[in-house]
Specification:
The protein is of the alpha+beta class. The protein has a single domain, classed as endopeptidase fold (from Nostoc punctiforme). The protein contains six helices and six strands; from the N terminus they run αααααββββββα. Strands 1-6-2-3-4-5 form a six-stranded antiparallel sheet. The two termini are 27 Å apart.
Length: 193
């Protein structure tokens, strides 16, 4: 996971996209990021494609992704939606409870109080033996992508609803990607084809 963390830290100081991909993603084309770009770009630099993994998962189980027009793999923003990363982790069996201690490389998913919609995601970069952790996040109220105490996100009136442990996801293509990503540190078993 060190390559994922290093890639996430290379995003530190990057401006948040105030348009959040709107207006034909002019902000993204200028190099601005939204929250989902942190894990998507960090894992991508380390060799794991969320675009590929989500498309594979959607082909198997499209219904959990909802029926919002344009929320499908043909959209250039499909993997840039926190709720889709959450759905992928839930579908692949790698979504853990919010009460667990996160691990380095985990995705932390948040929602507003009394809301069902996942609206924010961060990437865990450090976990101490006593369970304290740090995250890299891009958020509209922070302007610049930064590395922060993980609990500080909760102080902004967001609720942590789940932990996506990408290394535990069970897709065939995703497992092959993760095996390369972890350099064999994790023993991932591929199903027979």
């Amino acid at each position: 996971m060190s390559s994922v963390v290093a890639a996430a830290r290379r995003l530190l100081g990057t401006l948040y996209d105030p348009l959040q991909g709107r207006l034909d993603n002019v902000g993204g084309r200028l190099g601005f990021v939204v929250c989902t770009d942190v894990p998507v770009l960090a894992y991508g630099k380390a060799g794991f494609s969320f675009r590929q993994a989500l498309a594979e998962d959607y082909a198997i189980e499209p219904k959990p992704y909802g029926n919002e027009p344009g929320n499908n793999p043909s959209s250039p923003f499909f993997e840039r939606r926190a709720r889709n990363l959450y759905t992928y982790c839930r579908n692949r069996g790698c979504l853990h409870g919010a009460a667990e201690t996160p691990q380095v490389g985990d995705l932390l998913f948040y929602r507003a109080p009394r809301s069902a919609m996942i609206m924010h995601v961060t990437l865990v970069t450090t976990v101490t033996p006593n369970g304290q952790y740090r995250v890299v996040e891009a958020a509209p109220d922070r302007i610049l992508t930064g590395e922060r105490d993980g609990r500080s996100v909760l102080q902004r009136r967001l609720e942590l609803v789940g932990i996506g442990r990408v290394a535990d996801c069970g897709s065939v293509a995703g497992s092959r990607q993760l095996d390369r990503l972890t350099n064999g540190v994790l023993a991932l078993v591929l199903p027979s084809l």
